[in-house]
Amino acid sequence: MSAPAALSRLSSERRWWLALGLVTLVAGVLRLITLSTVPDNLFYDAAVRSMGLSLHNFLYGAFDPTARTAIDKPPIDLWLQVIAVKLFGFNSTVLKLPEALAGTAAIPLLYDLVRRLAGPLSALCAAITLTLLPNSVITARSDTMDSFMMLLLLAVAWLLVRSVQRRDMRPLLAGAVVLGLAFNVKLFEALVPVPAFLLFVWLCWRGEGIGVRLRRLAAAGGLFVAVALCWMAFVSLSPAHDQPYAIGSTNGSVWNSVFVFDGWDRIVKPAAPKSFSTKSAAAPLAHTAAAPTTAATASTVHGIASKPGPLRLFQYSLVGYGTRLGTLLFAALVFGLVALVPLLRRRLRPPPQASAEQLLGWAATLSVALWLLTGYLLFSFSAHTQPRYLEAFTPAVAIAVGAALPVVVSRARDLFGVYVLLATFAIVMAEGAAETASGKHGYLAIAIAAVLAVPVASYVALAFLGRVRLRRWPAWYVPLCATIGTLGAMLAMPAVRDVLLIRDHSGDQAAEVTLGASIVGPISTFLLSHQGGTRDEAAFSASTIAAPFIVLGAKPVLLLTSVNAQPLVTLTQLQRDHAAGEVRYVFTETVCKDVVVTHAACSRAMQWVRTHARDITAQAGLPKDSGLLYDLDEAPAT
Question: Are 106 and 150 contacting, i.e. CB atoms less than 8 angstroms apart?
C-alpha cells in the first residue's frame, strides 16, 4: 500500500473512531445525568448497606446487617456497588454509578465487535441504536444488575470473535470465564445468548473435525460451570452457622433460590399479584401513595401484568415493552429478514469458495438471528418477565439493526427495498402520531423523522429512477447519508422517550417498596430512639418493608417472612426472641383484612402480633390506629 493510501485509510479510521467517541459521550450523558433523581432500588441498596458492614456480609451477599438473610442471587454485581460506596460515600448517585458506567462502556465494545464482523458503518449504526434504546438507557440508570450483565455478554461475544480470528483457544476459554461471571450477576438471564454463541463457534470451526470441536466446547463448558457455580459452592460448603437464609427459597438453600425461584419459576410461574381489594390479603394505607412511583413500576404496583404471547414485546400499554424496545425490535426483525434473503436462497449455506472474512460474517449473521429469536421467544412467552430482563438480548437488536440497515439501503435500487424503507417511515410516523395523541410530545419525533427522511427519500428516488448521476460526490457519500438518515428517523421517537423518561425521573426497580419517606422517616426515628437494649431495631413483616429501614439505620432487623410469606421466623421464635428482650417492636405496611397465607401482613406471626400487642403508630407521629407499628411490651387497648 502506498504512503498516501495508507494515510487516507488512517484518516478514515480516525473519523470513525471520532464518531464513536461522540456517540459514547452521548451515551454517557444519557446514563449519568441527574442519577440522584432516579428512585432507589431499596431492596438491593439495603444489601449494599449490610454488605459494607463486614467481610462476612460482603462475601455472602447479606441482606440484613446480621446476615441472617441473603439476597436471592450471587452478589458479584453488588460487590462493585459496595466498593463504590466505600470510595465515594453511600448516596443515591454512587449506588447507580457502576451500572451507568457499565451501560456506557458497552457502546464502544459493541462498536468494535460489529466492526470486526460487518465494518465501521454497521458498527456505528449498532452503537447509536444501543445508545438511544430506551430500555438500555433506563436500565443503566437504575441500581439493578442487568446493564453490567449485558456488558459481560458483549465481552463474551468479543472474545469469541477474537478466538475465531486468531485461531486461538485462549480467548475462547476467557470467554467461558466471563460468561461464568455473567451467570453470577444475573443467573439464567445471562444464558439467553448461549445458543447463539455455540452456533457461532461451531460454524466458524467448519474445517475442524467434529471430535475436535466437541473437545474444545467441552473444555470451555467445564470452565464455565466451574466459574458459574464457584460462589454457590463456597456458600454451601461453609459452616451452617455462617450461611444466611436465601430470600426467595423455600428451604433457605442458595441452590433452591437460584435454580427454582430465579430459574424455573421465572419461566412457568406467573408473578404474584400486587393489587389489593376488599377480598385480598390487605388494604394499603393512604401514606404509601407518598412513595415515588415510576413508569417502570406503576404497572406492577397496580397488579397489572403483561400476558405471555407473540405481541407482548410490542404492546404500548401496561408494562410498555413497545415504548422501550418494541419499535426497534420490529425493525431488527424486518431488516434482519431482508439481510437474510441471500442466505435463505442458499439454504443458509456460506457463499461458494468464501473467504475467511465471508465465513465469519456468515456465521455471525446466523448467530445474531438466533440470539434475536431466542430472546424474543423467551421473553414473549415466559410467565414472569420485566423490562430490565430484555437487556439479555438488546445487543442483538442493536446489532441486527446496525448490520442490516446498510443492506436495506443498498436495496433501494429495487422495488422491494423501496417498500421496506417506506414501511419503516410509515411505522415511525404512526408511532409519533400515537404519542402525540396521548400528549407525550410525539410531534417532536415526527419533526425529527421528517427532517432526517429528506436524504433517504432523495437517495431512494435517485437510486430507483436512475436519472441523475452524482458526479461531484464519492460513490459512498449518498448511501452513507441515506443510512444515517434512516437510522436517525427510526431513533427519533426513542430519543424523545429517553429525554421524557429522564425528565420524569423514571427508573427500573427490581422489588417494589411502597413506603414513602413520610412513613419511614418518623418510624425510623422513633425506633432508633426507643430501641433500648434490644438486639433488633424491629421485626418486619417482609424483606421489602425492612429495606428502607436498613438503608437508613443499618441496624439489625428481624424478618418474619420472605417471598410470598415464606416464613423466616416462626411464631414460636418471635415469642422466644421477645421474651429474651431481643425484639420489642413490629412493623408492617398494611392491615390484614381477609386472611391469605401468601401475604406477609396475614402471616401467623402478624396475626398474633395484632392480637397481643398495642398499635403505637400514633406515638411515631402518624395517624392513630393505622396498624403500622406495634409494641410487644404493651397489651392491646381494650
Answer: yes
Of the listed ranges 174-178, 293-297, 508-512, the one predicted with least confidence: 293-297
Cβ–Cβ < 8 Å for 300, 387: no
Cα angle, residue 89 at apex, residues 84 and 94 outer, rounded to 5°: 50
Q: pTM of the entire structure?
A: 0.87
Output the CA torsion sign for 469, 474, 479, 483. negative
At residue 569, does pLDDT exceed 70?
A: yes
Q: How many CB atoms lie within 10 A of CB 293?
A: 17
State the Cα–Cα distance between residues 541 and 544, nearest whole angstrom: 9
Q: What does the chain come to in residues?
A: 638
- 309, 311, 315, 320: CA torsion to nearest 10: 50
CA distance 173 to 321: 35
- Residue type at 301? V
Owner of C-alpha cell 460482603: 58
246 beta partners: 70
List all residues 6 or more positions away from 628 whose beta carbon is below 8 Å from its beta carbon.
285, 519, 523, 587, 588, 589, 615, 617, 620, 622
Q: Is 632 helix (H, G, I), strand (E, B) or coil?
A: coil
**Which three cell numbers, joined as nine digits, stand for 384?**
414472569
Q: Are 180 and 226 in contact (CB under 8 A)?
A: yes
Phi, psi angle pair for 615, to nearest 5°: -75, 110
Rounded to whole angstroms, the Cα distance separating 311 from 315 reads 6
* CA distances in angstroms from 179 to 115, 155, 192, 229, listed in the order given: 22, 9, 11, 12
Q: Which three cell numbers stand for residue 516?
A: 414513602
pLDDT higher than 80, residue 533: yes
- 446-499 pLDDT, tens digit per residue, is 566 555 565 666 666 655 555 445 455 555 556 677 777 777 777 877 888 888
**Chain center to CA of 44:** 14
Question: Phi and psi at residue 631, in whole multiples of 5°?
Answer: -110, 115
What is the mean pLDDT of the segment spanning 226-248? 92
What pLDDT digit, counting tens, does each position of 122-168 carry?
999 999 999 999 999 999 998 889 999 999 999 999 999 999 998 88
Question: Is-contact 391 321, C-beta < 8 A?
Answer: no
- Give the three-state DSSP class for 629: strand
Say which DSSP state 567 is in: B
Q: What are 25-33's contacts with CB under 8 Å, separation 24+?
A: 26/131, 27/103, 27/104, 27/107, 27/130, 27/131, 28/104, 30/131, 30/132, 30/137, 30/498, 30/502, 31/100, 31/101, 31/103, 31/104, 31/137, 31/140, 31/141, 32/97, 32/100, 32/101, 32/104, 33/502
Give SS3 for 504. Answer: coil
